[in-house]
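Exercise 3.2. Students should predict the tertiary structure of the chain below and write it as structure tokens, then compare their answer with the key that follows.

Predict this chain's 3D structure.
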Amino acid sequence: MLGWLSSASAQEISAPVGNHSHLLGLGTAYVPDYAGAANSRLVPALFAEYQNEEGFFASTTRGLGKLTRHANWTSSIALSYRAGRPEHPALLYLSPTEALRGMDDISGSMTANLGASARLSDSVTLSSMASFDLKQEDNGNSLQLGISAAIWQSMHDQIELKTTLHYGDASYNQRYFGISTTQSLRSGLPMMTSNAGWNRSLCSVAWTHVIDQNWSVRTLAGIQHMLNDAAESPLSKMSGNLLLISTVNYSF
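Answer key:
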């Protein structure tokens, strides 16, 4: 689940309120078994993050790295962990899903992440994140491009809209959305070759309510749409997945 949240909306989930350098969050999330799955589950959502004044951070979603602030943009470099995709995911689930039967386990691996963001105005921000696999070459590399806008803000509340596009190279898209000859024989699904390209988009709205200087509540709702070869994959049982996350956060 953490891996899915990281690839889908890590920045929204882990963004601290105010200038605090420590953040703990606990809540629940309603997420699909995997991108494009027909079934979704209600699971716990837990994350933690630390960032010092020099920009060094340690985060359950962003990994270990450094954020550098420039005139009107920021850059970051981090070492992170990309969660794998088990053939029979059952952790925290009441029962394992059979939708990936015969598709083999996708091993987790370390990634190097290069990010950048720029403020176009007081409320609009562009962001990008390139992720390079350092261990499993077959898992491939990916890129995220996003644009967010704070459409309403008061002393205690903020509402933000964001759209993110996800790109995968040929190895990444084949690994997560393609079906090899062996996998086809094992699963009974038709063969599928997935090329490099945009594989999904996420449109979300997030509401942050600040209770006091330490406590806040953040709720996010989003729709993920499969694109191009990913949408045509036999693994993509639904063209769109619903994402719901709500956490109570303590910053200090």
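Discussion points: The first helix runs from residue 2 to 14. DSSP finds four helices and twelve strands in the chain.
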